[in-house]
Every structure is written in structure tokens, then in C-alpha cells.
Amino acid sequence: MELCVIPGDGVGIEVIPAAVRVLQQVVPDVQIQYADAGWDYFEKNGTPLPESTITLAEQCKAVLYGAAASPSYPVENYYIPGVRLRRILKTYANLRPTRYMPVPTSRPGVNLIVVRENTEDVYVGHEYTQDSGRVGISEKVVTREATERIAHKAFQLARRTGRKKVTIVHKASVMTQTDGLFRKVALEVAQEYADIATDELLVDTAAYWMVKNPARFDMILTSNLYGDILSDMAAAWGGGLGLAPSLSLGDDVAIAEPVHGCAPDIAGQGIANPTASILSVAMLLRHHWRREDDARNIEEAVYAVLSEGDHTTDIYSEGAISTADFTDKICSHLNSK
Ligand code: NAI
Ligand code: MG
Predict the structure, then answer these.
(1) How far, in Å, from the CA of 231 to the mean position of ligand 2?
(2) What is the pLDDT of residues 104-119, one digit of tens each?
């Protein structure tokens, strides 16, 4: 087993090595290779994602990716390396589960997963300005091929993991040609999975239900932008962004990546919550390497440590421990098994 590890920027440098420690605890012979990407690397070298990183990722077929700091304005030659890497590796399905966690910030009864199309929509980066910068235009791309692929992935995952209902989320009422196509194709694919219930919601209504009654959801199947936003909302019910894992899956390749970004407000202090990255590694073990027992052991260790009241400052400040101490607790829990 080989893993290409890309810590990236900010808290990525703190939480990704913590997740590597936990992985090494359960799979001592895993081959770890570190690689560069991100804003800091771009500032020094002029590219956010060097060829050497792409080559290593392609060779390993498994990546653990932290986060990259990306400015909210155009910078020449910069692009978001994570989004590019997902496209290059063809990890077309992004799985973002949220479930109740034993912390006061989590909501009992929640157990849902957002399955997000990971390669197209407005994230293709076809953007330009006209009229001397007075008009900004973005292309939203939805294809039958990518929609069929993500829909099959979602329904197969629902079957494999015992989920009962898939909610297709879109805004086809406004974007009839793009979201309309996503909706039509997803509903067609749903017909092939008669054992799984299907319903649909407009994305704004889905956001409302995500706040009002998140237990309404089992699996959400949606496009790239809505999946990004709804999964951050869902993460709040799982205890917060510090605990929210994700996995970008292709047919024989996967990127484990926490939902959160590089958290500049807390970076460099050694206080970030490594749980999101650790649980992303558990997802890699389960869905890509097919090592269910190892995945479950990690999840149980995280659950046990949180249940004992150990926590980082994002959960609550009183009695909070550092990233390193929290990771130690998880490792010693795994060790004691
Ligand atoms: P963020 O996810 O970095 O932070 C949002 C809030 O959650 C902050 O208050 C932060 O302190 C907290 N948080 C996030 N991760 C945490 C952790 N592990 N432990 C404890 N608290 C945590 O989102 P924000 O602030 O909007 O974006 C910051 C930068 O990250 C931006 O440059 C953005 O472009 C980038 N970003 C990168 C992503 C990626 O590379 N995959 C994903 C999301 C944002
Ligand atoms: Mg996001």
C-alpha cells in the first residue's frame, strides 16, 4: 500500500501528519511519500501543483490531501490544486458523510451522506470577464456521462452500505438545461435501483431541511457546487468542520481530504482538530483499500476518545487539548486493542 501525502497549507501541515500517524498505527508497513502543493508552494515556485506531485499521486493511486489557501480574486497562473487533482485523477465522486458524534456540538439522530459530483458544474473553471471587467461570466457544465457515472456510484454505494433513500438535489426550475439534465439523468438511473427510494428537492429547500430536520436525509446526490455547500452545512450537525471527513473516489484511485480548508485563523498554533483528516483516512481504508476492520478500528478509537471528553478547542475551549495530544490519545487507544 502506497500513499501520496500532500499536507498543503495552514492547518493541513498540522492535521495531515496526525492522520498519517494514526494510519501507521493500524497499517505499519504503509509506504508514505510526501509531496508539495498549495499557495505557499506557488509563491516560491510559480505553480500550485508541480508535475512531480501529479506523477506521484498517479503512481500511488491513493492520496491524503490537506488543504490549499486560495485567494478570492484572480492570480495569474494560480488555480486550486485540489480541484485540479480531482480532475486529473478522475475522482468523480466525493463522499461526505455526517453522523452524530459524541460532542456537545453534534445533533443526535443525524446520519447522512452527501455524494457530490466532483469534476464539472461551475467548478470547471471556465470563467472570463467582458466589457473591461464589468461583466463576469462563468460556464456551468453538466454532461450526461458524468451524471450517469455519479448517479450509479451513489446508488451502488447506497446498496452496499444499507442506505434506504437517495434525495436528488438541483435547481432545475431555474437552470433547466444544466440542472435539468442532471435531474433527468439522475432520475433515469434511479429507475434501475428500485430497491432504493428516491426523491428530489430544490437546493434552497434542501438547505432549509438541512437546518430544520437533517434526519430527513439519508443520501443526497447532487452536483459539485451544491454538494460543496450542503456538506459544510451538514458538517455543523456532525460537530463541526474539524470532524468532517471526505473521500474523492474514482474507479481505482482515491483522495482522502477533510471537508475543511486551511483555517488561517487557527493555523500554526497546534490546536487544529485532526479528526476530519483521521476519519478521511478511515474512509480511504474502507472504500479504496477495502480494509473495513482497520477503518472501523480508527472510527471506534475516535469515538471513544471523544466520548471520554477529550477534545480540541473547536469543540469547546474549556479543557481543550492540542492536536498532538489528541492524536496521542487516539493512537494509544488503538494500541490498547
Ligand atoms: P476553513 O474550512 O478553512 O475554516 C472555516 C472555520 O472552521 C474556521 O473558523 C476554522 O478555524 C474552522 N476549522 C476548519 N478546520 C478546522 C480544524 N481542523 N480544526 C478546528 N477548526 C477548524 O474555511 P475558510 O476559512 O472559508 O477558508 C480558509 C482558506 O481555506 C481559504 O483560502 C479557502 O480557499 C481554503 N479552502 C481550501 C479547501 C481545500 O483546499 N480543500 C477547502 C475549503 C477552503
Ligand atoms: Mg468546501
Answers:
(1) 7
(2) 999 999 999 999 999 9
Provide the 10 A C-beta neighbour count for residue 155: 23
At 190-236, the pLDDT tens digits run: 999 999 999 999 999 999 999 999 999 999 999 999 999 999 999 99
Ion ligand 2 contact residues with beta carbon within 5 A: 228
For residue 266 and ligand 1, the question of a CB distance below 6 A is answered with yes
The whole-number pLDDT of residue 255 equals: 98
Closest among 87, 114, 86 to 227, alpha carbons compared: 114
At 124, list the grid cell.
Answer: 470547471
Q: Which ligand has the minimum distance to the alpha carbon of residue 233? A: 2
User: Does residue 260 have its Cβ closer than 6 Å to ligand 1?
Assistant: yes
**Are 228 and 262 part of one and the same domain?**
no
**Counting ligands in written order, which one lies closest to the CA of residue 19?**
1
Final residue of a structural domain among 180, 203, 237: 237
Kindly report the CATH number assigned to the domain that includes residue 333. 3.40.718.10
**How far from the centroid of its chain's Cα atoms is residue 249's Cα?**
10
